[in-house]
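Reopening this ticket.

The earlier resolution said the output was attached, but the attachment link was broken on my side. Pasting everything inline this time so it's all in one place.
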Amino acid sequence: MTTNEYQLGFGAMAANFGLEKRPYGNGIKYNFPPSWENGWIMEMNAAKGLFVSSAWFIPTKTLSYTMEIEKPCMLIFCVDCGDITFTQRGKSAKHLTPINHVIVNPKKPLKITFPANVHTCYTCVLVFEEFIQKFLKDRPLDPPFSMDNLACLQETHYNTPNITLVLEQIRWGVRSGDMPLMNFECKMGELLSLIVCNTQRERPWIDNRRNHVTWENEQKTYGVKVNIDQDVLNPPSMIAMCRLAEMSETKLRRSFKQLYHMTIFDYIRTETMKRAMMFLGADELSIKNIAEKCGYESPSKFTAAFKKTHGITPRQFRKGFGL
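Inline output:
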């Protein structure tokens, strides 16, 4: 039995959970019960086949919902916090850590789970291939776009500061409730173009003995990255990373840079600055507080690192979103 995300977006999941529905600006707000320490999902149906949403809730019980969508589509997540899990029969569970994620509809039952008593906060774009093909009608890509190709995307194609910035713009646009829906269509086009640009910018594989990373070492290096992602604000020491990867420091550094096109230090700094961008949405945190959370003793050094990653200062970011 198929579910109706094509017509309702996350409203289909909200209906399954029995959430209260009410108009909110140009979209809809689904409220969790008051006993759940407040919580909501805000969503805009920006165009046929395009939904943008922002969610904040702490469920008092584990919530599970199974999507079964016939039409080709994908979900682009920017996770602030939580332990969202996607499971599909015959495949390993996918845990959405606090980074960007792309989930391509497998056209089979796909279960999403939110654990009890875990603060969950995310931004999500649900886009169907129908919308993308219509958007690209007069903007052909080479090679032509196919949703099937997106299943082959690497994390380096979508977990980048430029895409995080667009998803943050979408988040605050949804939460304000008054952004024109056309703006979200443009933002989806921007996301698509950035993903294409990131794939084209990827350095060509240099296949020689010095730079080649074996499948075994690729898995070990990936394990190190996953370990960093679990708590990027408190990353493991280099000694701990080498022990986990069972590699020398030189070999681990070389393997990481070959696979992710940046050094381990640059990766940690980039991910930290993406977390900093999310912290800037919290009114109770000053820039000094955020600098300290990100491991910077000096707000000026934090500001310099933030600007190097995002091209704007923390104050400019807050001012731009009216925060």
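Reporter confirms the inline version is readable. The longest strand covers residues 39-47. The radius of gyration is 20 Å.
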